[in-house]
Amino acid sequence: AQSVTQLDSHVSVSEGTPVLLRCNYSSSYSPSLFWYVQHPNKGLQLLLKYTSAATLVKGINGFEAEFKKSETSFHLTKPSAHMSDAAEYFCVVSSSGGYNKLIFGAGTRLAVHP
Amino acid sequence: KAGVTQTPRYLIKTRGQQVTLSCSPISGHRSVSWYQQTPGQGLQFLFEYFSETQRNKGNFPGRFSGRQFSNSRSEMNVSTLELGDSALYLCASSPVGDTQYFGPGTRLTVL
Q1: Is the minimum CB–CB distance between B21 and chain A shorter than 8 Å?
Q2: Chain segment A73-82, per-residue pLDDT in tens
C-alpha cells in the first residue's frame, strides 16, 4: 500500500530565507508524487509533480523538489521565502499506479515572518 | 480554460437531512474525483467517476454516493447527515491518466 509521511506539521521561516518541507513516501512500485498548496479557505493548487522523467522537479513560484529513491524522500524546497508562501502544503502519492486516487500526507503549515 | 467549479460554496444542514453537492470539471476532463477534508482526518478520497462509471471508491459508508452525467459534471450526495460529516468537500478533475485539478470546495456544516 502507498503512504506519505510529512515529517513536520509546522515550519516557520523568515522572509527571504530558504524553505524546506520534508516528505517521505512508501510505495510498492515506482510512484507518481505531487506537492499541492492550500491557502486559507481555498482549494488545492498543484505546485509540481514527479513522474520519473527527472529526479529534480521544478514547479511554480520558485518551488522545486528532489526525488530520492534510496531515501524514499520527496522534499520540497524554495531558496527564498515570500510572505505569500504562507499556506498549508501537502505531499501526495498516487495509488496503485493510477493518477486518479490520491493519498495525502497530513500537511505542513508554513508560516513566513517579516 | 475555466477551472473546476463547485456549487454551492457553503451549506448549513441539520442532522438527519440529506445534501447534494455539484462539481463541473474543466472542459475536456472526463475523470472527476471527490475528497473530504476535516481537521481530524485530513484529506480522504471518497470516489472517482469516469465516463459515468464509478471506478474507485474510498472507505466511506454507503450514505455517501455520487454520480456523473454524460457531460462529465458530477454530483455527490450524503444522506442522513451526521455531525461528523461537517467538512470541506473537494472535487478534482483530470484528463485521462494525468494530474488532478481541484475546485475551491464546498464547506458543509452539520448542526
Answers
A1: no
A2: 999 999 999 9
